[in-house]
Design goal:
mainly alpha, about 0% strand
Amino acid sequence: MPPRRRLTSADRRAHLLAVGAELFAAAPYDDVLMEDVAQRAGVSRALLYRHFPSKHALFAAVYRQAADRLLAATRLDPDAGLVDQLTQGLDAHLDYFIANRHAVLAANRVLAGDPVIQTIMTDELDALRARLLGVLPLADARTREAVSAALKAWLVFVQVLCVDWLTDETYDRTELRDACVGAAVGALRPLLPEDPAPDWPPARGGAGA
């Protein structure tokens, strides 16, 4: 049997992050103990604390990694229509939110107001806003400023709506996504020289559609 390979510090940190992400996804924040993380990862508590001095530090690192991956998964094609771009981005985020309900609720409820977590969220929302600004037809600086302000408000709206939905699913996922898309289209239409989504809302099936 070959000797066990000793993990580098970077590999060990990545392993601890993966274990932390699993546990924070599986249980509410308050129920996750650092002892459980160390046991699941097969390391001593001392080694775990050497990489992450507190549960808060571990959670923040897990959430930062998730935000970075979500940004990487959100690819906005300038040749695609606005609705297609929004749908792709929202689907990527909803996939993560549903699979990691406990972690998302922890960041937005349990740790609401925490400066480290808030910085991670703000950075992600700012990056998403910059990407959307990059694919929208902005005629001049004034239009850009107005659209940027509308997108900032819309992203906060989406965040609040999605967190509330995770707590109490009063409608289905498609309805949630369409509500978010519709809010963006409604906010941007008055500000752009051309209708960004002339086919929105889609025709509903049934008599009279």
